[in-house]
Inverse folding.
């Protein structure tokens, strides 16, 4: 690290840079909530829910405590429970599957395609009488092939719950993430494209009945105060987080555009040395993560670390091979594309405030690695 110009090296996810840009607005929103004297399920949450539903192009949004609980609440709302199966992917954040386990259901995995998304051609083969939901994951900021998933789901009369936790503002054929399924689930974990200053989540829907159910499920099943018509949980977005999200939502399109621009810089600098992410036709990728593929992943990662560059792997161990999910009975070889990809993926620094110089530095280091490697072989 000696002699490195640290100011050029981009941080991995840029939370502090983002805060610095909107600090005054955040401070005044914070003060507004504190002075209101009302901290749970109030005006801020309602206003954010309205704004976020409009943003996603749906009728309703229901704030909740995290993306994991958004998924669990969505599953509860469509009546998924013990003995039911939910079709999803194993190349995802574990919480996709935690939510399925939380409601007592069983995840059934399908392999992914070369764009890291649910391989739609494989869904039919795992549909059974127990299948209650198809849960595609819009991983890294790109929407799965929703035309085909919707067609399969319709044919079998199975609802879709989108895991849109990494895809705020992503589009496919002009429709946004969260507007395709019966329900769409979002995380506002701080590093997300729309992130709060703690945990938070939301479920989107066009279905009034599901909306009403979700508003009860997240609040102990209350229909009105102290009258509980169904069994629910406590999973609420608080007023502070909602107020801060309202500020950030105004920047989301601009920030997504900046991520897309940064992705373009990476691609121009790297496409001849490694596999860069592909934006599918008709898609608007919002690059929550910028994930390259190379068989040299582990050695490259060490090299970049020595150059002061933080990289991560999303995800090093697919869910079906995680110790916690051994009981599902999957083994190595069951999901070949997922397993190959898990050994090759590397997430590079990506956020709206990343600079052209920062990306040039990362790209230069990556090129240097491959030049040195080629010389030594
Ligand atoms: C694809 C995906 N699903 C679900 C989640 C869970 O969200 P949270 O961390 O807000 O519970 C995340 C967040 O890490 C995610 O990336």
């Amino acid at each position: 690290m000696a002699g490195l110009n640290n100011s050029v090296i981009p941080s991995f996810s840029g939370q502090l840079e983002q805060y610095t840009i909107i600090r005054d607005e955040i401070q005044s929103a914070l003060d507004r909530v504190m002075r209101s004297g009302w901290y749970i399920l109030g005006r801020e949450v309602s206003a954010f829910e309205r704004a976020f539903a409009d943003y996603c192009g749906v009728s309703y949004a229901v704030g909740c405590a995290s993306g994991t609980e958004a998924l669990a609440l969505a599953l509860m709302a469509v009546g998924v429970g013990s003995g039911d199966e939910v079709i999803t992917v194993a190349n995802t954040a574990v919480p996709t599957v935690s939510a399925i386990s939380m409601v007592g259901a069983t995840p059934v995995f399908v392999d992914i395609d070369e764009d890291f998304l649910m391989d739609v051609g494989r869904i039919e083969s795992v549909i059974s009488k127990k299948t209650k939901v198809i849960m595609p994951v819009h991983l890294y900021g790109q929407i799965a092939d929703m035309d085909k998933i919707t067609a399969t789901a319709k044919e079998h009369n199975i609802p879709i719950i989108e895991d849109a936790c990494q895809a705020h503002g992503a589009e496919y054929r002009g429709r946004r993430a969260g507007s395709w399924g019966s329900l769409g689930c979002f995380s506002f974990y701080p590093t997300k494209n729309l992130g709060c200053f703690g945990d938070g989540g939301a479920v989107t829907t066009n279905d009034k009945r599901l909306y009403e159910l979700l508003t009860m499920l997240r609040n102990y099943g209350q229909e009105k105060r102290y009258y509980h018509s169904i069994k629910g949980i406590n999973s609420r977005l608080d007023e502070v987080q909602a107020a801060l999200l309202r500020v950030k939502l105004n920047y989301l399109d601009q920030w997504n555009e900046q991520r897309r621009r940064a992705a373009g810089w990476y691609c121009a600098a790297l496409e001849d040395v490694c596999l860069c992410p592909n934006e599918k036709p008709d898609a608007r990728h919002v690059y929550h993560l910028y994930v390259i593929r190379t068989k040299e992943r582990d050695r490259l990662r060490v090299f970049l670390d020595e150059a002061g560059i933080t990289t991560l792997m999303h995800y090093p161990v697919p869910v079906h091979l995680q110790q916690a999910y051994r009981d599902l009975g999957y083994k190595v070889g069951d999901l070949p594309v997922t397993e190959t990809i898990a050994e090759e993926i590397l997430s590079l620094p990506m956020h709206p405030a990343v600079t052209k110089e920062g990306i040039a530095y990362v790209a230069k280091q990556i090129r240097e690695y491959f030049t040195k490697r080629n010389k030594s072989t």
Observations:
- The domain at 17-249 is CATH 3.40.640.10 (Aspartate Aminotransferase; domain 2).
- The chain has a mean pLDDT of 96.
